[in-house]
Amino acid sequence: MSFKDLMDSWGKQRQPLLTRKEYSVNLPLNDASRLHALAELYPAVPVERLITDLISEALDEIETAMPYVAGDRVIREDDHGDPVYEDVGMTPRFLELVRKKRQHIESGDA
């Protein structure tokens, strides 16, 4: 989802699945000002939802930006028959940690 898609969704009021745990943060003044400006542009969307959606989109962007680091092991061939090497960068470790953390959150451990 792009930020444009995110803004479109704010107009359509889709509600994401939420955790029971709340996170409290103090925002830099400029970020708080921009957040409240968005809230004024989208008055039907609660500020908490704007924060939730923006964090979700930022995390998606971070995951996408993690560089692929080719390892030595071939895991498959692409459509042209060229080898595709195992990613030994941060992405596989990140995704494994996400899976583990989600299990803990869903079980109520976190």
Helical content band: 40-55%
Helical stretch count?
A: 4
* Sequence of strands across the biggest β-sheet: 1-2
Quickly give the structural class: mainly alpha
List the helices and strands and how they pair.
Layout: H1 3-12, H2 29-41, H3 47-65, E1 70-77, E2 83-87, H4 90-107
Antiparallel strand pairs: 1-2
Brief summary of the model shown:
This protein is mostly helical.
Description:
The chain has 110 residues and is mainly alpha-helical. The chain has 2 domains: 64 residues, no CATH class; 45 residues, no CATH class. Strands 1-2 form a two-stranded antiparallel ribbon. Strand 1 and strand 2 form a beta hairpin.
Keyphrases for this structure?
110 residues; mainly alpha; 2 domains; two-stranded antiparallel sheet; 55% helix; elongated
